[in-house]
Amino acid sequence: MAGFTLIEVLVVMVVIGCLAGLAVISSGVAGPARQLNHEAERLAGLIGMLADEAVLDNREYGLRLERDGYQVFFHDEASGRWQALSDGTRQLPDWAELTFELDGEPLVLPAPASGQEKKARDAPPVPQLVILSSGELSPFRLQLGERRKDGLRLQLSSDGFRLPRVERTDGKGRAG
What we know:
Elements: H1 6-27, H2 31-57, E1 61-66, E2 69-76, E3 81-84, E4 90-91, E5 96-102, E6 105-107, H3 115-120, E7 129-131, E8 140-146, E9 153-158, E10 166-169
Antiparallel strand pairs: 1-2, 1-7, 2-3, 2-4, 5-6, 5-8, 8-9, 9-10
Organism: Metapseudomonas furukawaii
Subcellular location: Cell inner membrane
Membrane topology: Single-pass membrane protein
């Protein structure tokens, strides 16, 4: 008899199902929500790490926020200026953006500057979110979300003493 057994057919179906599952996962079907959550957790972790480092190093750190990214700075006591901790800004995906409130007041975050615009600026960049060597940080509310109106919105906030954690908001108006 020249046919397939039921076991052989089931094995082939399981293999095809596994391959299809891997293809769906690797193509990022659940991508934007997962990627946004990953970015928010990364940012919360970075703020926590900077708070620890500020206490250990007795140095002030800050985050300079733009609509589509952020950069870490430290305060150089010798020059009295903020210096970039690394070259370049951490860019968010094209579909994501940041909004920021400092002490309950919304701030208009700058758009990213091109290379020529950066050179043309006389004033050094100043971070909006400051992390002090005492472990305190600026009271803030930061929303990370998709650019589309009905997209996912995640919030990080702090009263100045506790470290932020990621919370999901409904995306309608200001988060409470």
